[in-house]
């Protein structure tokens, strides 16, 4: 664990009373450049101390910094971060692929004064520039993701459904030997500060907030046994459907749409922020050892690979949607 990790963790351990006491002082939030440079260890001692003093008393900046620190480590570990195609197209309009020089010049011009220091321009790394872009325009990558066509319509909220990602495309593993087809959507609901309820479009790479609610909708081309698993930011894998506490059949009929949970019930997001993934598995036969898969997913660095290994040679198919969970 590096020094920034230790510092951010120490702030999370502070009690609510301690944070409220620190917040009583009037303060000005640091710029995007400052946060990015802090995470890239580019601040001098005085600037770093001032930034950390602010993070100790500003909950919003602390949560944003924790999120960006996690994003940075994920990018370093994976080399990229997948995003919806719409965001990628926006990135193409802002950042041409011609050269790093053009990249820096255009981003500097786009961000404007946020990248300027009083003594002139601060020399920042590519990682810092990427973080500034994330803060300023909400672009999380320049990698195109395949937009999978949903083979059926749904109009519960009169909005476009999610974009399922085929896990075999992500992991390079082959499809299982089955003619079974599966499609999925995630539909969401958010309670706004004024008490009104708004719809949330949940796609691959979407950003959701603690307290948001969601349902999973799916359809199979053949009679099948369906399982829904969520892998959360704490590396916990839980079976959402069939509900382990209720003895209901998960054997669904072909070409019929199903929504889980049904009627006016919803799944909801707790306070544990991070990346979460919803997996939908469909199999022509009953999967008796699904609990063993949950355990293997929690022990794995790449749980999606465990899912693909599990369904291999089982006449099964998998779909998944990942989203980023942040604090409200």
TrEMBL record:
Record bears the keyword Cytoplasm: no
InterPro entries on file: Anti_sigma_zinc_sf, DUF4384, Znf_put
Alphabetical keyword list: Membrane, Transmembrane, Transmembrane helix
Domain DUF4384: residue ranges: 208-285
Range of residues in the leader sequence: none
Pfam families: DUF4384, zf-HC2
Putative zinc-finger domain location: 37-61
Membrane-traversing stretches: 123-143
The protein's name: DUF4384 domain-containing protein
């Amino acid at each position: 664990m590096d020094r920034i990790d230790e510092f951010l963790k120490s702030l999370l351990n502070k009690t609510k009373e301690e944070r409220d006491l620190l917040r009583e002082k009037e303060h000005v939030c640091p710029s995007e450049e400052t946060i990015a440079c802090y995470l890239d260890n580019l601040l001098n001692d005085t600037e770093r101390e001032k930034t950390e003093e602010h993070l100790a008393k500003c909950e919003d900046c602390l949560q944003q910094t924790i999120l960006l620190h996690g994003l940075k480590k994920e990018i370093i570990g994976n080399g990229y971060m997948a995003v919806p195609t719409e965001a990628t197209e926006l990135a193409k309009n802002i950042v041409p692929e011609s050269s790093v020089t053009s990249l820096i010049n255009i981003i500097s011009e786009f961000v404007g004064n946020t990248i300027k220091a009083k003594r002139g321009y601060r020399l920042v790394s590519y990682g810092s520039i990427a973080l500034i872009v994330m803060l300023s325009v909400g672009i999380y990558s320049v990698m195109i993701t395949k937009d999978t066509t949903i083979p059926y319509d749904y109009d519960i909220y009169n909005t476009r459904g999610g974009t399922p990602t085929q896990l075999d495309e992500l992991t390079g593993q082959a499809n299982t030997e089955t003619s079974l087809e599966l499609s999925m959507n995630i539909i969401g609901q958010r309670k706004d500060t004024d008490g009104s309820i708004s719809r949330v479009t949940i796609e691959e790479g979407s950003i959701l907030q603690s307290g948001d609610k969601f349902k999973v909708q799916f359809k199979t081309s053949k009679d099948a046994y369906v399982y829904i698993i969520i892998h959360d930011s704490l590396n916990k894998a839980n079976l959402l459907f069939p509900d382990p506490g209720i003895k209901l059949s998960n054997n669904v009929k072909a070409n019929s749409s199903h929504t889980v949970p049904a009627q006016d019930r919803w799944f909801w997001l707790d306070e544990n922020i991070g990346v979460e993934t919803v997996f939908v598995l469909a199999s022509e036969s009953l999967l008796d050892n699904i609990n063993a898969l949950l355990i293997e997913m929690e022990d794995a660095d790449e749980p999606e690979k465990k899912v693909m290994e599990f369904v291999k040679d089982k006449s099964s198919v998998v779909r998944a949607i990942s989203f980023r969970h942040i604090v409200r």
